[in-house]
Amino acid sequence: METKQTKQTKQTETKKVDWLITLLPLGLIVVLCILFFFKPEQSNQVLSQIRYVFGDTFGTYYLVIGLGVFLLSIYVATSKYGNIVLGAQTEKPKYSFFAWGSMMFTAGLAADILFYSFSEWVMYATDPHIAELGSIREWAGVFPIFHWSLIPWGFYLVLAVAFGFMLHVRNRERQKYSEACRPILGKHTDGMLGRIIDLLAVFALIAGTATTFSIATPLMASIINELFHIELSRTVVTIIIILITCVIYTYSLLHGFKGISFLAKACVYLFFGLLLFVLLFGGETKFIIENGFASLGKVVQNFFELSTFTDPERTTSFPQNYTIYYWAYWMVWCVAAPFFIGNISRGRTVRQTILGGYVFGVGSTIVSFIVLGNYSLGKQIRGQMDFIAAYEKTGDLYTMIIGVIRSLPCAPFVLALVLITMIAFYATSFDSIALTASCYSYHRLGEDETPNRLIQLMWCILLILLPIALVFSESSMSNLQSVSIIAAFPIGAVIVLIVLSFMKDAKKFMEENEKQRKK
To answer: In the 8-state DSSP scheme, what is residue 141?
Structure first.
């Protein structure tokens, strides 16, 4: 029988839960899932129309926020604010640089990095904008690096130090987006405006999860069919994979940061092992290094032009189809990943967090796109394989990627390695997302407190429902992108508000410290 103390503990736990933030997103997901299951065509049409309004009409909005946040990250890291320690001012980092970098990298990228590293240059090679700029060899490898490096990680790192400052310096117990806006919003943080911000954040988190899971998991299904020579429906296999991945990341999450750290380090070893194998044994080592280095140079040389290109005459709509989507994609991921990075950055200075994040996060990302992308690009340029024709014939990037992996030595081994690495990426990424979402379900949560396991389990299950519905409805790549573009529109304004709030609060903190020193 339940004791009186046990009942009181359960009642206290129930009162801590923010039921509006927990149940309203649950209801929305259920409604969306029903719509995508029973009205797939109509749902995809509506998504496409809304995406056009936000992505095409207001596209510059995303570009301005992206460039602005990146420039601000450099200013914050190199200014007096960079000296602030995220914790007690004498505190040392909680995790080693490798463990910290591994958790940050895997939490921020998921398995998408492998899907896009293999395939992204092909999408650009078939776009008329590349013909406007020059040759495929010169430019197809440039945009993957641009779209996955400085500006995307700038989003993460500026918000990570803002959340880290809020959690470890100001010791706030409300681990929510609205709390990071308190220095500007004041008492309105606890009112309707704060609730709206938190709901927008949860919806954005769900949208980012749905986009990520829906885009890359079909590749895992294709790999399984290829490995075992079976012809099961990709949709069915994809849904099974999502369920298996959910079990893995749920198990890891319920074992706390120790489980997440172990999985993250294992994922990084697998990831770099894959890159090393392709680099050394793929037969394109020289082309990978030389063309990768040249592409990196073009990104640096043309960075501001690429960041501000809007194609006002819509000759190709390249920024609307790609750059604006990517910035939106990273914005919706900014709900979970920066909270997680800020949480594990205790003891590091603001400067160490931002610059260390750029070194580990951007460095690892660039290496992935240079190695995996230039391997297949090299085969294409030399005329040994025609991946562009294969993609244009079927419009299927997943089949094209299988063709790339087949061209490698020990192809079955590489297929298995890619599959395991993708599962590890997904598991570590969704550990951080589920943990952040679980924290959102509480009115207040102390730094040393963790969400109830049932709440964590609920979010682990909740986060896979919409991706399953999107996969089931066979949404196109464009419509999957639309989910992020739509959700990112309001969250972009909140990101700006959080950054300005951090700057205001950090300035106040430094003034307080200066006064104490003078005493």
So the answer is: T
Taking the C-alpha atoms of residue 125 and residue 138, their distance in angstroms, rounded to an integer, is 10
Please say whether the beta carbons of 115 and 219 come within 8 A: yes
Q: Extract the tokens encoding 276.
A: 């090393």
**What is the phi/psi pair of residue 176, to 5°?**
-140, 160
DSSP state of 315: S
Q: Which SS3 state, helix, strand or coil, does residue 420 take?
A: helix
Instruction: Tell me the CA distances in angstroms from 459 to 434, 471, 472, one per residue in order.
Output: 6, 19, 21
* Alpha-carbon separation of residue 127 from 58, 118, 131, 292 (angstroms): 22, 17, 8, 20
Any bridge partners for residue 471, and if so which?
none
- φ and ψ of 85, to 5 deg: -90, 135
Report the C-alpha gap between 224 and 241 in whole angstroms: 10
C-alpha dihedral, 267 to 347 to 362 to 253, nearest 10°: 30
Counting as low any pLDDT under 50, the low residues of the chain are 1-2, 4-11
User: Which residue matches tokens 């573009």?
Assistant: 485
Q: Which residues lie below 8 Å from residue 74, measured CB to CB, with a gap of 6+?
A: none
Question: 436, 335 in Cβ contact below 8 A?
Answer: yes
Alpha-carbon torsion (106, 461, 215, 410), positive or negative: positive
Provide the token pair at 35: 């719509």
C-alpha span between 178 and 197 (Å, rounded): 6
* pLDDT for the residue numbered 215: 75
- Strand blocks (E) in 191-317: none
Nearest partner of 351 among 157, 194, 96, judged by Cα: 157
C-alpha span between 150 and 53 (Å, rounded): 27
| Residue found under tokens 């952040």 | 436
How many whole angstroms separate alpha carbon 420 and alpha carbon 44? 31
Distance, in Å, from the CA atom of 37 to the CA atom of 475, rounded to the nearest integer, reads 11
Euclidean distance between CA atoms 414 and 89, whole angstroms: 46
Q: Measured between alpha carbons, how far is 233 from 469 in angstroms, rounded to an integer?
A: 15
Per the structure block, which two tokens stand in for 384? 């040994």
pLDDT at position 8, please? 45
Q: Measured between alpha carbons, how far is 316 from 314 in angstroms, rounded to an integer?
A: 5
Architecture of domain 39-507: Up-down Bundle (1.20)
What's the pLDDT at 9? Answer: 46
Tokens of 499: 């950054």
Residues ≥6 apart with Cβ < 8 Å to 454: none
Domain locations in the chain as residue ranges:
39-507
Quick one: which of 38, 10, 4, 24 has its CA closest to 469?
38
Type and span of the H or E element at 57: none
Residue 298 in contact with residue 146, Cβ under 8 Å?
A: no
Q: Which amino acid would we find at residue 338?
A: P
* Among 502, 362, 365, 516, residue whose Cα is nearest residue 82: 502
Length of the chain: 519
Taking the model in full, what pTM does it have? 0.86
